[in-house]
Amino acid sequence: MGRGIPTKQHNIGIQGVFNVGVNMLSYESTAKDIESIGPKICVLPIGSLEQHGDHLPISTDTIIALEVAKRIAKHFNAFLLPPIPYSLSLEHRKSRATIWLSPETLISLIKDIAHSLEYHKYEVLIVVNGHGANFILRNVVRELNYTLNLLVILIDLGAMYFGSRHSREVHAGRSETSIMLYLRPDLVRKESAKDYIPHVTRDYLDYLSMLDISPYGVWGEPTKATKEYGEKLLNNIVKEAIDYVSEVIKFLKKCGHFK
Ligand SMILES: [Zn+2]
Fold first, then answer.
1. What distance in angstroms lies between residue 30's CA and the mean position of ligand 1's atoms?
2. How close is the Cα of 28 to the center of ligand 1, in Å?
3. How many whole angstroms separate alpha carbon 40 and alpha carbon 38?
4. CA of residue 23 to ligand 1 center, whole Å
5. 3-state DSSP percent of the chain in helix, strand and coil, to 5
6. Buried b vs exposed e over 76-109: b needs ≥16 C-beta within 10 Å?
């Protein structure tokens, strides 16, 4: 960044992806770093703690959202906020590894964070959502944009790699497993991966839990995952996200809604 932050490159972390290093503004910076550099853009990753089949860690969504957020933050010289490690995982509650929030809690959390940022006169908050079932985020983002002096932009990773309700891949399938093989191969138990594509569409999670619909807690084909596909997919997601954020800011500036 070359604006007062030490430029020494750190590894992704000794043991984990949560280590960001000192070469960018993040939750590992000092207050003085943040105050002296005065970033205007913040990036907030949202993950989850939920079963991801027998082959992926329960923190998969957090790991992926954080990595995407980190790359977006680097691109925009933004302040990377710590990931929210829990979200709306009610549909996975049959596994005792799953810890979930109520929608009200997540809404309050996002609103409180956005209010703090507005108080400090940050200009943009980019929310990177790594968990597909956080449907309320779009409503929260819309409400914040209509009420606060802060532009809030939602990047929804689930929508970017799953698409319609007829998608054959919803959870712990080829995409997520491939990205994890690329980011954290040490955490993937490829030999335990089992494919399962239920005969119903994704919205049936409104009625039944994932483990009622899929015996393995998987919806997709993780055995087809590769590190190469994961790298390509993650790079595409990051590029699409950066292009989208740039487009929104440019358009709003043109319309005079944003300085
Ligand atoms: Zn996931």
1. 31
2. 25
3. 6
4. 28
5. 45, 10, 45
6. bbbbbbebbbbbbbebbeebeebebbebeebbeb
Please give the distance, rounded to the nearest whole angstrom, from the Cα atom of residue 51 to the centre of ligand 1: 8
Q: What is the pLDDT of residues 159-208, one digit of tens each?
A: 776 666 777 889 999 999 999 999 999 999 999 999 999 999 989 999 99
Find all residues with CB under 8 Å of 59, minimum gap 6, and list them: 47, 49, 85
Name the 3-class secondary structure at 145. helix
**Tokens representing residue 242 in the block:** 């950066």
How far away, in angstroms, is 200 Cα from ligand 1 center?
19
Ligand 1 center from residue 173 Cα (angstroms): 9
Rounded to the nearest angstrom, the distance between the alpha carbon of 53 and the centre of ligand 1 is 10
What is this structure's pTM? 0.91
Give the Å distance between the CA of 18 and the centre of ligand 1: 17
Chosen CATH of 31-254 out of 3.40.50.10490, 3.50.4.10, 3.40.50.10310, 3.30.930.10: 3.40.50.10310
What is the Cα–Cα distance from 66 to 97, expressed in whole angstroms? 20
Residue at 106: amino acid letter: L
CB 182 within 8 A of CB 68: no
| Domain boundaries defined on the chain | 31-254
The tens digit of pLDDT for each residue in 3-30 reads: 444 444 434 443 455 677 667 899 999 9
Token pair listed for 48: 């989850």
Joined tokens for residue 215 = 């015996």
